[in-house]
Amino acid sequence: LDEINSIVLLLIESMRGQLRNMSVTVFAVLVSCASRTVDEPKDSGGAGMDAASCSSANCAGCCSNGVCQPGTIQAACGRNGATCATCSPVQACTAAQSCALDPTSKWRIQPTSAQVASTNQGSDWDIGGGAPDPFVELWCPSTAATSVRTPTVNDSYMPTWSSGGCTMTEIDLLSVGFAVAVWDEDVSVNDPISGKGTIAPTEANLNAAFINLTAMPTLITMTVALEKQ
Ligand SMILES: [Ca+2]
Ligand SMILES: [Ca+2]
User: Fold this and answer.
1) Contact predicate 97/71, CB 8 Å
2) What is the band of 128 on the pLDDT scale with cuts at 50, 70, 90?
3) How far away, in angstroms, is 187 Cα from ligand 2 center?
4) Closest listed ligand to the CA of 130
5) Whole-angstrom Cα distance, residue 101 to residue 204?
């Protein structure tokens, strides 16, 4: 009986061990499943592509929704299977397939609207009263010897313009900038609405595609569009 009991006890111990092993195994599988769920990103959508199908191993360009793209354009820039980046307007996708400033790109500088004070520092804008006749003069770059100008808007405190701008390279725009002056056109001598000032837009201004200016003595505000050509 003792021997039988010993055998039964051994069998029970053995089964317990197996059960322990099984439970350990089951737990490990669960962990494995859990980590696999974390490790493998779900399909990011698109056309039902498998995100794992595009990687540095098989894509010299960039990955967009699991699809390898050339990685050489503004809207999808990158290399070695990295996620495609959208370059900002001030940037370009370089030959090295990365977004960087685009120094030779051309930008159009166009004053679009302004608000002029109701008086010329307490006096009428024109003899006998009446609103000013604003136009904008531009030096592009700011060091230029000659200027260009917008048309004159007759009798307006809120002039708008769509022509008479200038074009500059991005590097000039970010370094020396453009110079600007706003005038009230008169028969003999134009009245200054603003003095001549130099404006060097930031990358953020270029990405926003405009810059708002205000200036002494009587330019309340002016918007200048910065448009990449
Ligand atoms: Ca005047
Ligand atoms: Ca006038």
Assistant:
1) yes
2) confident
3) 10
4) 2
5) 12
